[in-house]
Amino acid sequence: MAGPSIQVGADSQLATTMVEMLREVPPLPTECCIFKVPESLRSGNEEAYTPIVISIGPLHHEEKKLQPFEAHKKRYLSSFLQRNSDISLEDCVKLLRGLEERAHNFYFEDQFSVAIAVTTNFLE
């Protein structure tokens, strides 16, 4: 029965080492929730990580195959402005400019973001 007690001691030491290692992981910004998929994952199945119909963020905005939906985005904006005649396009632009930095903070650009996110979620 000496085996299990040695294992328990080794497990405790490993856990202690891991706790110390996890303390070194920098925290994510509080609003950060959009992660770029690391190239090592994308290369296994590029299509699984690429939009098919619409681009919402800046990463795939200029892709030619997504351009047909850009006209729909303009229609939606026009419809919104027509339904809300008390809001001007200039007001919308000013409001969005004011939110630009906050929106940018939602994107986490570290190449190891998936690993860090998993580690951070594990600790919560």
UniProtKB/TrEMBL annotation:
It comes from the Eukaryota. This is Uncharacterized protein. It comes from Coptis chinensis.
